[in-house]
Fold each of these.
Amino acid sequence: MKHSLKSMLLFGLGLLLLACGNEANFLNSVAPASGARVKFYHLAPDAAGIDIYLNDQKFSGVNTVPPAVAAPLSYTNSFPNQDYATVTPGTVKVKIVAPASTTATTDATLATTDLTTQADTYYSVFLYGVSPTYSSLVLTDNLTAADPTKAYVRLINLVSGADASATYDLAINGVVVAAGVAPLKGAATFTAIPAIGYATTAVPVQLRAAGTTTVVGTTTLTIQPYAGRFYTFIARGLVGGTGTRAVNLTPSTNR
């Protein structure tokens, strides 16, 4: 009886060790990947949808599971939608393509750029402009909170059009936090603003004509600026545009 009990205990211990080994392997397999972090934005108002290629390999939609087919990245959206994608540090060729569709028989390259990255560094890549001239803007995103009790915001002005010369202010909860941001410009650095507590009522966000209280755009935005979070606001659209092409404000949470 004692021998049988001892055998059962040893067998159970072996199973426990095996299970622990499997758990350790699983945890290793889901550990966050190391590398550079990149986020891509589509802010070209007359491009219906785009695909992102890195070194001629399609990158946007890489997490789509067959037989599903990745949809092109639509205007005002980003890839990834949340957080950043991980890429191998170094220099890659970024190619932004309008894929073939019912109205275009072949793919069309809208813009290309060389993207040089470093490990554990964050980058944002913006497509902007209108046909036939599209461009890209690359920013390095410093997501280190100098004061962990604050939230952080920035405004990027990517309004397009031949006469796109207006400058804009960003007001949060009635206070201007970014002033006089010129066309196709923006600060890579973030500005600290007061944070609010969790489950607290969101505060209003406005895009204003610089130096005035005149609100630009029809989108009603609010934000819950939590401590340690980083937010990008993008002035986008086409001067004189209507509907989805009108000048407006697009938000994005960086962290």
Amino acid sequence: MRKAVGIGGLRRKEAERQALSKKGTELAKREIDKLQEQIGLMKTNLEEFVREHQRDIRNNPVFRVQVQRMCQLIGVDPLASRKGYMAELLGVGDFYCELGIQIIDICVATRFMNGGLIDLEELRQRLIRRRLKGSEPVVEDDIKRAISQLAPLKGGYRIVDFGGRKIVQSVAREMNADTSMVLGLAQQTCKFTIEDVRIGLGWDEHRIRACVDDMLRSGIIWVDHQGAVMSEYWVPAFFSQISGASLSNKIIF
């Protein structure tokens, strides 16, 4: 018959467990301290690197993105504060603040024609035309970062994706599922008809009309009653993909 473990045995096992736990905690703390020391050294080296290459960071958008990604990898957010040390070193605090203001200006100025949806590339081209000659170049990543800094304004500024097509939304309005599906259907041709939606999405007339009427009220589509067979609904946010000059670029702000 197996002998039961006595009180002394239980105490020994508990002491062993506590000793192992203490040793594990000490080892974990040692590893964490070592890791923090390495990260601190990396941050110091990164600051030196940024100081030496400030001019390149400001003038080369690709290099700027690469440096910012290095910052993120070691837990440094240069945009956490416009007056932050790394933001000052990188020269990006004022850059993104200025870019954010210009994005707001363009989105507000074009809202009457696109309902608050503008193609990301069209926005970039408008920014390039708007900025002073000799200003820092602007790439897609810059726009994304600038828009992320507009969140506290609660103006609805965000980037939405329609089948790989990036659209900047600048109105505080939730894009419902039906609207997103219709926009996804129209992204290649920039337009659709009631029949296109019926065939493409299998909806009934009532659902289609409700969605289209809502999109018309919000201004994100235009209606053309001159269609050969039936009315066509155009999406201004997608105009920039039409070959040649963008239709919406004919109106310059």
Amino acid sequence: MTHRAVLFDFGGVLTSSVLDAFAGFGAADCGDAGLPLRLLGSDPASKRLLTEHEEGRLDDDGFEAGFAQRLRAHGADVSADGLIARMQSRLVRDDRTVALVASLRADGVPVGLLSNSLGRDCYAGFDLPAMFDAVTISGQEGVRKPSRRLYEIGCERLGAAPSEVVMVDDLAQNIVAAERLGMGGVVHRRASDTAEELDRLLGRSSVRDAALR
């Protein structure tokens, strides 16, 4: 099946790896590179904090206070002040993926952002309305990936059925959820590989060329 529109994740796609950034924070601030991700992935209290924050039900201060407490409970001497900024401080813009988005739009492909938000400043430095035809952010919608509803909202805003849309995300579980809805999916690792997959799914050749320039 040929698709005609693309939804991009933010962290780990338009930026460097979120997992690497959290590991760097863990090593520098917690004395354990794996601690933040272990808690966010398997500690019920930490998972609840993240879900409530990404769905807009818990503000930055509440998440920082709660997650700092969970980190301290596991031996890390961390302050809540500025915790989100420190967690994200190692993220850098991926200019090749940003160029890929621009190339798709220039060729008339509807392109949207579909992102789970972390912190009020996580999109700083990105002019999202100028970059995308539609922007869907979990904290503004009250639902987060991998919920079916967030994907549906993103597709609706592009004026496309899920079967016509490709989701690009760095987390495999989010692609599995998209594919269950009938969407195409690309697990992002680097811009050139993603461009090659989009070539195939969109039936195009110019996408890959733009990402390699």
